[in-house]
Structures are given as C-alpha cells and as structure tokens.
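Sample pair:
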Amino acid sequence: MAVNVRMTQELSEELRSLARETGRSQQDLIREAISEYVRNYPLRGFPPEVRHFLTPAMKSAPGAVKRPLLTLPDGMSSDDLIAHERGSVD
C-alpha cells in the first residue's frame, strides 16, 4: 500500500539526516516507526514504569515462537505490579 505523508520541513530534514546517518532509506525508517507505534499503542494505558514488562522484544530470533502480550491476572492492577517489582509487596 502506498501512502503520502506530509511533514514539516524540520522533520523532513531530520528524517533525511537520520537516513544518511544509518544508511537506511527514509521509507524504511518511516515503516519501522509506524510498525513500532502500532505494536506499542495498546500499552498506552499502562504507566511507563511497567511498559517494559509488557513490551515484546523488538526482533525475535529466526524460528522463535511468538508469544502474546502479557496480561495482568484478574484483580491485579499495574500499581500492584509496580509495588511487587519494587519489593514492597510479598
């Protein structure tokens, strides 16, 4: 699917610079950014302190089995998870 993206001159220059710096195409960088946004969008409701527990690895090893995102057990809140990880709850 082809998509046109309108961006500010400043963002366009930053994208061009990043493409040169990384040796990747601007299209590749845009695709990666959109993919990451879509993958992480469901995590927006969790506090930043716990998102890393729920975020799948960026790239999996070839042949690796993909697992679904972690979900909290019934009755457990993200605050409970944070407290548990900090060691303040048994």
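The longest helix spans residues 26-40.
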